[in-house]
Amino acid sequence: MSVESLLGDFRASAASAGVPAAYAGLQRTLGAASLTADDWLQLGEGLLRAGVPGVAAAIAERGLDQHVHAHALRVLFGNALRLAGERAGAERELRAVLAAEPGHRQAAVSLAHLLRELGRHQAAGEAMLLPWRDDAPLREDALATIGFLRECGLTRRAFEIAGTALKAHPGDAALHAQLGELALELGRFEQARAHLRASLDADPAQPGLWVRLATAHRFQRRDEVDVMRIAAFAQRRGANDLAGIAAHFALGKIESDLGDTAAAVRALRVGNAAMRARLGWSRAGWQAFVERQCRLPSPQPVAATPERGFVPVLIVGLPRSGTTLAATLLARHPAVRGRGELNWLAGLATHVESAGRDADALVRASALYAAQLRSDDAPARCCIDKNPLNFRHLGHAAALLPGLRVIHCRRDLRDTALSLWQQMFAHEDNAYAYDFADIAAYAAGYRRLMQHWQDVLDVPRFELDYEALVADSEAVLARLHAFLGLEPDATGAAAPQPIRTASVWQARQKVHAGSVGRWHAWAPHLPELEAAFAQA
Predict the structure, then answer these.
(1) Of 95, 112, 398, 436, whose CA is between 20 and 30 Å from 281?
(2) Cβ atoms within 10 A of the Cβ of 256, count?
(3) Are the CB atoms for 533 and 414 separated by under 8 Å?
(4) Burial, 340: exposed, middle or buried (Cβ in 10 Å; 0-12, 13-18, 19+)?
(5) What value does the mean pLDDT take over residues 325-331?
(6) 113-171 confidence digits (pLDDT tens)
(7) Matching CATH topology for 3-178 and 307-532?
(8) Nearest 5 degrees, angle CA 391-CA 397-CA 401?
C-alpha cells in the first residue's frame, strides 16, 4: 500500500463519486494501518496538492495520533487547517511546534503568513523572526524575511535585519539593494545612495535601482558622481534591456533637476518608446473594462459590525495626482494610520465576482480587507489605503467596507500626464503611462468611472484638488480632518511613515506649489502633450 497508490485511488474516486465518497474509501483502505511519519506527511501533502485541505487536515491529525512528536506533520496539519479556513486551529498547531522547537523555520513562516492574512502584521513579523534567535539564517532566508517584513509595513525592522544579514554576507548585491530601498523608504537618502551604489557595483543589471538612485537625490551639478555613473551606463547600455531603459528614465530625472528640459525629453523619449514597445497597452481593452464596470451593479453591501471600530478611507485618483502627499499629511494626525498602497481590493473584487457574489464570500472578503486596514498596531479612528488605482473598484469597496469614505485627488491633467510620462513604473497596471495619447485615453476612462461612482454610490466623497492643497495645505487639511470626523490636531507630531511610491523624495519635502503648471515649460519640447490634452 504505497502513498502514490493511495493518492491515485483517492483522485480517481473523487472524480467519479465526489470528495466525501473518496474520503470514506480512503479511511476504509487505511483501516488500522500504521504508517511512518514520512508516509503520513507525503499523503497529507498530496491531498493538499489535490485541493482538499479539509481531507488533508483529517489525515494529518490521524497521523499525529501515531507520531505525536512529528513536527513536520504538525506543520502540515496547521497549513491544512489554515487553507480549510480553520485559522484558530491552524495557529494553535503551528505555535505548538514553535514552543517545542523555536527555530523551526517552516512553522515560523507558515504562522507568519497566517497572521498576515488576519491583519496581525506586528505579530506576523515577530513570528517570521523566531528562527533568528539562534543563528542568522542563510542569505536566501534572510532575503525572504526582509521582503516579508516590508510587505507587513515593518520597514524599520526590515532595515535592521538587512543590516545584520549584510554583516554575515558582506558585499552581497541583493542585501545592499534591500538596504538601499529600505533607507529610501525611511527618508535616509545618503544611506540609500551608498547602498544602491554598492549593489549596482556588484550587479548593474538591476533596473529599479538605477531609477531609485536618481530618486534619492536632487541633482545640482553635472560633475556629481551619480550623474556621471548614470549617464555613462545609459550611453553604454542603450535601451536594449530593462536596465538600460531604467538608466534613461534616471537620466531624464537628472536633466530635469539640472534644468535642461530638452535633454530630459531626449532621454525620456528613449525610455518611454522602449517601454511602450515592450508592454503595449490596449485602449480598447481599457474602454471595455470601464464600460463593464459601469454596467455591473454594485454588490450588496456587507452589514456593518461594531468590532471594526475604525473609519476605512480610500485615497484614489490618477497616479501622480497628489495621493501620496495627501496620505502623508493625513498620517501626521495621531488618530490616523496610513497603510500605504494595499494591493487587496482588485483581487478581492475578482474573487467576489468569481464566487457569484456569494454572501459568505462577500463577508470573508470584507473581513480580510478590514483586517489589513486595521492591523494590530495602536488603534486609530481612520485607516487609509492610498492605492490610487482603487478608483477602478469603488463599487466593490463600498460593499466590502461599511462606513467607507473616499478622498478623490484631482490635478491638472497636463501636469499629471507629464509626471506619469517621467516615471518607469514597476507594475503593468500603469502600462498606459508611456505615451501621451494612451494617458489621455486612460484619463478619459478614469473620469467616466469616477462620475459613474458619484452617480450610483452613497459614499461620502471629498474632492481634493492638488493645486489647492499645495497653495494652502493647512486650510485644506482642516477640511479633510472635518470630513473624516477628526479633532483638530495642533501637534502634527506623528512619526514620519515609510514611503514606497515614486514620490519618496517629493513627499518628504516642505509642501510647495513649484509643480503647479509645470507642463508649460515642457510643452515646447513635447507638442504631443498639448495635443493629447487640448481640452484639459
Answers:
(1) 398
(2) 22
(3) yes
(4) buried
(5) 95
(6) 999 999 999 999 999 998 876 566 689 999 999 999 999 999 999 999 999 999 999 99
(7) no
(8) 145
User: What are the grid coordinates assigned to 250, written together?
Assistant: 534616471
Q: Does domain 307-532 have CATH number 3.40.50.300?
A: yes
C-alpha cell at 206: 538591476
Answer for the pair 313, 327: CB distance below 8 angstroms, yes or no.
no
Secondary structure element (H or E) that encloses residue 384, with its range:
strand 382-385
Neighbours of 114 (CB within 10 A): 21
Fold of 3-178: 1.25.40
For 94, the grid coordinates are 503551528
Please compute the mean of the pLDDT values over residues 265-286 and round it to a whole number: 97
The domain spans of the chain are 3-178, 204-279, 307-532
Up-side HSE of residue 368: CA atoms within 13 Å toward CB?
20
* CA separation, residue 254 to residues 31, 211, 250, 311, 532 (Å): 72, 10, 6, 41, 25
The per-residue pLDDT for range 350-409, each reduced to its tens digit, is 999 999 999 999 999 999 999 999 999 999 999 999 999 999 999 999 999 999 999 999
Alpha helices (H) along 18-52: 19-30, 37-49
Q: pTM to 2 decimals?
A: 0.89
Where are the extended beta strands (E) located within 397-504?
405-410, 461-465
Higher-pLDDT residue of 2 and 95 is 95
The 8-class DSSP code of residue 497 comes to P
The torsion of the CA quartet 388, 391, 397, 402, rounded to 10 degrees, works out to 80
DSSP sequence for 358-396: -HHHHHHHHHHHHHHHH-SSS--SEEEE--GGGGGGHHH
